[in-house]
Amino acid sequence: MALVEAIGVRKSFGHTEVLRGIDLEVERGEVVCLLGPSGAGKSTFLRCVNHLETIDAGRIWVDGVPVGFRAAGGKLHELREHEVARQRRDVGMVFQRFNLFPHRTALENVMEGPVQVLRRARSEVRAEALALLERVGLAEKAGAYPGQLSGGQQQRVAIARALAMKPKLMLFDEPTSALDPELVGEVLDVMTSLARDGMTMIVVTHEIGFARSVADRVVFLVDGAVVESGTPADVLDNPQQPRTQQFLAKVF
Amino acid sequence: MASDLAQNDLREELVVVPLRHPWRWFSGAVIVLVIGGLGWAMAEAQIQWEDVPGFFTHPVMLEGLLNTIVLAVCAQGGAIVLGVVIALMRLSANPVARWFAVGYIWLFRGLPVLLQILIWFNLALVFQNISIPMLFSVPTNVVMTAFVAALLGLGLNESAYMAEIVRAGLSSVDSGQTEAAKSIGMTPMTTLRRVVLPQAMRVIIPPTGNNFINMIKGTSMASVIAFLELIHAANNISSRNLEIMETLFAAAAWYLVMVSVASIGQHYLERAYGPR
Questions:
Q1: What's the predicted TM-score (pTM) here?
Q2: Which of A145, A237, A242, B145 is 20 to 30 Å from the Cα of B240, by its Cα?
């Protein structure tokens, strides 16, 4: 079974329907890039996958578990907030604006989840967190506060913070959109190595080059619906739909 | 051209004349004169200065000091706890809780503290017993001592202000912080304790410090219901020796000492929660 299965996902904000029935499957180890013009609903869909937004219709399963619900007696029961929190442990998320905890050092940010949520021993978490900072190339910044780091460094710490929970799935919500152009590469490098290591990833991005070289599949969204989906070669180099062709013509 | 040349030649030798500030000297002198005059007037006044230190350390005054400190700390402490609860209700998804919080703040912030103290102190006039049916019942005038009445009057009023301060602090934390906390699986309680409150403290502490300083002075209102705080203590002493100003000055000195200590504490608290 696919790690992520979304069927007929709908979501409205007030009278605006942002998602109009999205179907999407993500296999284990697969990297899926969501592309599309702004306002297409890419980020909203991503936020629905870990229940930061509640969907109005449809279902999302992650690893066979309905997100935000418990299946029992042939019915889906809406979960309480602390039960949803338990589900989110297995899904890492990286935000456009990093959202590091500014009152804690890089190392403390990475340790926060395992120590406070998983209640694991500080000493053992500390060693793992240092290894994770090493992996994103920031071992020497362990004691720095987010305010003392560049955008690219903050985003790499944020990736390490998400990885510290040993997630099955990583969600990236435009992780390089708030960065200065010269800092984009260092974040994409970390994400590329993560993909090579077999992490399942859903990435909302405008980095076509990243999608082409790293994604197993590209999904193109317009106005809250999937317009086209396939390998990067199919969708990016040989788009069939006029909306996809228009968008790619503007991006290149 | 010729004049330009002449100026260039001169440039090396120009002496800089700093701007003079004669009015600064004048206004400074006026201030010194006024202070000197006031000091002279105080020295010439009919005050037994030599008696003030004795009143400062008079046992009754010290008892009043202790009561003042206990009342201020208890009222402020209770107000902080209540304020957090009311602020959370104010931000709650439950509309009944939200409206209760709005009404609570409207009532306890809207009435003068002195009035609230008097109402609590005289509660026995309208409710002879305080009771929850079938659980307990006690006579109101046994429970409602001067201390309890002052504590309720000061504390409940302050809790309404604290609720607004805490609400402003919680709202000042970016929603991205809560989302990041959720994304690593934090429960709402852990998110509040580990992520939101520590950041809200930066907004909460400065006005809380100000309010505590106000609270220290506000305890003086409890003198009207004969609670033995500093002013009542001063009055007790002067009713025997008629040195009214001398005892009031001794009380004033204690207020300044307490406020100074509180200000220093506030400074260190702000530094501890300050920006990184």
A1: 0.82
A2: B145
Interface test with A, best of B175, B177, B184, B187 (most A CBs within 10 A): B184
Instruction: Write the DSSP symbol of residue A237.
Output: I
Query: What domain range includes position A19?
Result: 4-249
DSSP annotation string for B32-69: HHHHHHHHHHHHHSS--GGGHHHHHT-HHHHHHHHHHH
**Torsion angles phi and psi, residue B60, rounded to 5:** -65, -40
pLDDT in tens, B131-175: 888 888 888 888 889 999 999 999 999 999 999 999 999 999 999
Distance of CA A224 to the CA centre of its chain: 18
CB contact under 8 A, B276 and A81: no
pLDDT single digits (tens) B48-85 = 889 999 999 999 999 999 999 999 999 999 999 999 99
Residue of A89, A116, A173 to mutate, interface with B, max B Cβ within 10 Å: A116
Token pair for residue B187? 């429960």
Kindly report the CA angle at B269 between B268 and B270, in degrees rounded to 5? 90
Distance from CA of A149 to the nearest CA of B (A): 12
Q: Domain tally for chain A?
A: 1
The whole-angstrom separation of Cα B108 and Cα B159 is 8
Q: A93 and chain B: CB distance < 8 Å anywhere?
A: yes
Q: Identify the pLDDT of residue B3.
A: 53
What ipTM score was computed for the predicted complex, to two decimals? 0.93
What the block records as the tokens of A75 is 């019915």
CATH of the domain at A111: 3.40.50.300
Domains and CATH numbers, chain B: 70-273 (1.10.3720.10)
Identify residue B33 by its one-letter amino acid code. Answer: L
Partners of B169 on chain A (C-beta within 8 Å) are none
Which of A215, A187, A160 minimizes the C-alpha distance to A26? A215
* Sheet of A225-230, strand order: A91-94, A169-173, A200-204, A31-35, A217-222, A225-230
Residue A31's pLDDT is 96
